[in-house]
Amino acid sequence: MNPLTEFARRRFLGNMTTGLGGIGLMYLLGNSVSAEAPQHAATSSDASIWKPGCGMTHHPARAKRVLQIFCPGAASHIDLWEHKPALEKFHGQPMPGEENLVSFQGKNGNLMKSPWAFAKSGQCGKAISSMLPYMSKHVDDIAFFHGMHSKTNTHGPGCIFMNTGHDTEGFPSAGAWTSFALGSENENLPAYVAISDIRGEPPNGKANWSNGFLPARHQAIMMSDQKPIRNLARPAAISSDEDASTRALLERLNHRYAMANPAESELAARVAAYQLAARMQMSAPEVSDLSREPASVHKLYGTDDPNSLKAAYARNCLLARRLLQRDVRYVNLYCASRASGVDGLLNWDAHKTLKQDYQRHLPIFDQPTAALLHDLKQSGLLEDTLVLWTTEFGRMPTHQEGTTGRDHNPDGFTCWMMGAGVKGGISYGATDEFGRRAEVDPTTVWDFYATVLHLLGFDHEKLTWYHNGLDRRLTDVHGHVVTEVLA
Fold this sequence. Notes:
CATH class of the largest domain: Alpha Beta
Largest sheet: 8 strands, mixed
Strand order of the largest sheet: 8-7-9-1-10-14-6-15
Structural class: alpha/beta
CATH topology of the largest domain: Alkaline Phosphatase, subunit A
Radius of gyration: 25 Å
Number of strands: 19
Number of domains: 2
Shape: globular
Order of helices and strands: HEHHEEEEEHHEEHHHHEHEEEEEEEEHEE
CATH architecture of the largest domain: 3-Layer(aba) Sandwich
């Protein structure tokens, strides 16, 4: 036989085998999402030294990991965190200068005080809602951002904006940026996990924890106590030897393909995801097995509470602690879900009956969240864990006409942070006397995340990825570090 013909035949067969192996790998990886971009442009003061994903930072970091607690539906700042005595004084009167205000769902009525008193708490004397007795114990560790404001008054874009720094889908979340920048400290667990609420996903769903245009491996893995990671164990019909042989074959085929296509980065990301899935066969079931926790911990969190929604959220809080304890870089913890036809039943979107709605929500949120913060602090994890509490925007100081609820307010709301590198017991910024608009030291989402990245050791202007002709970043083209909240 002609040697050239034989060489061509072998090459054809080899390529066909590689192709079939690739098809098999794609099937095994299932629904992995967007492919990674061809190149990135992450820079630092010395770009030849700093490399993403290796644990290196632009400057010394105060935080190693992040817990972000997100309350979708626009939790009311003036009913939870920011006391407004003027609302009590002028309750039932028109809001000066905005007597005929039309907001998201229509015309507004008169000023409406909070249904609950505010109580001074902690050594700092911070006043928060009396409906948050457990959370009140943590005010000395919290830095409140009372001057937050958003560029949208709609839940979907608002949630996306709060999570990604952009009000349209397709951009990486803060967790994805953190995964990209720092990589993973635990090779058997994802760097980024999103814990969904039993009541469903937030507005715009998975776009809130998307990798956007970053490599696919930086999208969050979805977990919850109710929806653990799918069973990754080897099927009983496949022997361990057969399993090992199959993996070895795939590894050889993938290596051959990588050598022949050095510029192709998508396969490497997918192979890494597959290898992680294999390693998670042992680690994921262990981390989600809450039965390993003592009874005292379950009592602290309220995992067996008669209120099934509270118990479910409590178990998710405990799961979050277990993930952070195992050095997962970024954990998104959601409390409540997307909007529904039944106002207030599923989230913080209290358009019609704020008092009744929040009397359901606040007990669900209060004890488990406070228990998680207590657990992180007493274990020492809070020393290098940054905790964020966020929502997409605030609510109006007036009642919605014809209701006892509040409409959307993107012009003023509260977020907060605590933990690694954060000065506790302070309030930065403020809305006006009624809580209508950010008035003192207004803070953008970009400022908030510039501060987060700073605590993680990064200059937000230098952590970038080249996409569609631009060096994209979490803070877009904005943002300043809020040094006043740094310890």
